[in-house]
Amino acid sequence: MQESLKYVTVRALKWTFLETVASRGLQFIVGVILARLLFPEQFGLIAMLAIFIAIAQCFLDSGFAAALIQKRSVTLTDQCSIFYFNIAIGVLAAGLLCMAAPWIAAFYDEPILTPLTRALSLNLVINSFGLIHNALLTKQIDFKTPAKVSLIASSLSGVIAIATASGGFGVWSLVVQQLSAAGIRTALLWLFHSWRPALIFSFRSLQEMFGFGSRLLASQVLSHIFDNLYYVVIGKLFTAADLGLFARAQTFGEQPSRTLSGMVGGVTFPVFSSIQDDPERLKRVMKKALNVLALINFPIMIGMAVLARPLVLMLLTEKWVGCIPYLQLICMVGLLYPMHALNLNVITAMGRSDLFLRLEIIKKVLIVINILVTWQWGISAMIWGMIVFSGICYFLNSYYTGALIGYPIGEQIKDLSPYLTMAMLMGAGLAALGMAPFPSYGTAFLAQFVVGIVIYVFLCRISRLEGFMEIWKTGWDQWRSLNKARQCDFP
C-alpha cells in the first residue's frame, strides 16, 4: 500500500511538475512580452478588478469541488447536482458583476472599468462548465490530463494576447487573454474527460456536502478578499501606475512560491485525504513534502531577491524599474508560503474545515491591522508588514498541524533550518558575484544564475540534506528503470 501510494504520488508530482514548468513558463514569457508592449497603468486597471473577479469565482465553486475530492463515496447524483449548481451560480455572479460595474468604476474613478468588468464577468460562466471535470481529475490523482489542458490553453491564449497587444488594443489584450484561456481550457476538459452530466439534481446531495464545503467557501471568500485587499487600497490611495508596479512585482515574486504550492498542494490534498485515518503515516508524508518544498522554494526566493535588479531590467526594461524594491521584499514574503499551504492541506484533508475557517478569520484580522498601521508610510512599508504577517501565519497554521498529527512548529523549523542555511549561503555568494563588472544586465543575470545553481547543489550534496537525497534517489531510480527498459527493447 505504501509503495503504491508513493508511486501514485511521484507520478502525479511528475506530471504536475511538467505542467507547471511548461504552462507557467509560457505564462511568464507571455507576461514579459506583454509587459514590454504595455504600460504599468494598464496592468494596474486589471489589478483593480482582481478582488471582484476572485470573490465571484470563489462563489462559483462554493467549496463543493473540495468536498467532492474529500468525500470517500461519490455518486453520479452528487456530481450532476454540483455541475448544475456551478452553472447557476456562474450566471448569477456574472449578472451581479455586470450590474455592479458602474459602481466599481466610480469607486476607483476609472470609467473604463465598467466595460472591462462586464467583459471579464464572462469568465465566470465559461469556467462553471469545467469545474466538475477538474475536480474529478484531481480526485482520481490524474494530473496528466490537466497538464495537457493547461499547456495548450496557455499557449493559444498567449499568442492571442500578444497579437492583440501588438495590434494596439492596449488593456483589452489582457482581457482577451483571460477569456480565451478560460474558453480553451473548458473546451479541452470536456474533450479529454469522458464525464457527461445526466438530468439529475438533488438538493439533499448538495446539503450532505454543504457542511464541509460551506466552511471552505467562507474561508476562500475571506482569503480572496484579503489577498486582494492590497490591490484595493493601493488602487484607491495611489495611482494605477503604482498599482501596476506592485502587481508586477507580486506576480514575479509570488509566482514561484504559489506555483510550487499549487503543484505540491494539488497532489498532497488527495493523497493526505486517502490516509487521513493514519496520523503517523500522514506525518511522515507531510515531512517529506515539507523537505522538498524547502529544498526548492528557499533558493528560488532568496536567489530572486538578490537578482531582482538585473532580472527586471533585462526582461521588462527601464519603465518597470520602480518595481525592483517591491520585488525584493515580496520574495521574503514568499519564503514560507508553500509551508502555509501544506499545513492547511493537512487540516482540510482531515475534515477540519472548521479549523480552516477559524484560521482564516484570525489571519484576515491581522491583514487589516497591517494595512491600517503601514499604509501611511507607502507601499514598501505595507510589504514589510506582510513579511511579519507571514511569520505569524505560519505559527498559527502549524499549531493545529502539531495538534492533529504530532508535527509541531518546533519540529518543522528544525527540519527547515538546514535548507534555509544553504539557501542563504548561496545568496551571499550571488551578492558577492554581483559586485563584479558585467557588460550587460543579461550577462550578470546569467552568470549569477548558473553559479547559484552550482553552489546550492554542491552545498546540498555535501550536506546530504534529506529532501535533496530523496529527489536524487527518485531521479536515479527513474533513470535506471528507463535505461533497463531500453536495454530490453534493444537486446
Task: Walk me through the structure.
The protein is an all-alpha fold. The chain has 2 domains: 217 residues, no CATH class; 252 residues, no CATH class. Helix content is 85%, strand content 0%. The protein contains 22 helices and no strands. The chain is globular, with a radius of gyration of 23 Å.
Summarize the SSE layout with pairings:
Layout: H1 2-37, H2 40-48, H3 50-61, H4 64-70, H5 76-108, H6 113-120, H7 122-128, H8 131-139, H9 144-166, H10 172-192, H11 203-227, H12 229-237, H13 240-274, H14 279-306, H15 308-315, H16 324-333, H17 337-349, H18 353-374, H19 379-405, H20 409-434, H21 441-463, H22 466-489
Structural features:
491 residues; mainly alpha; 0% strand
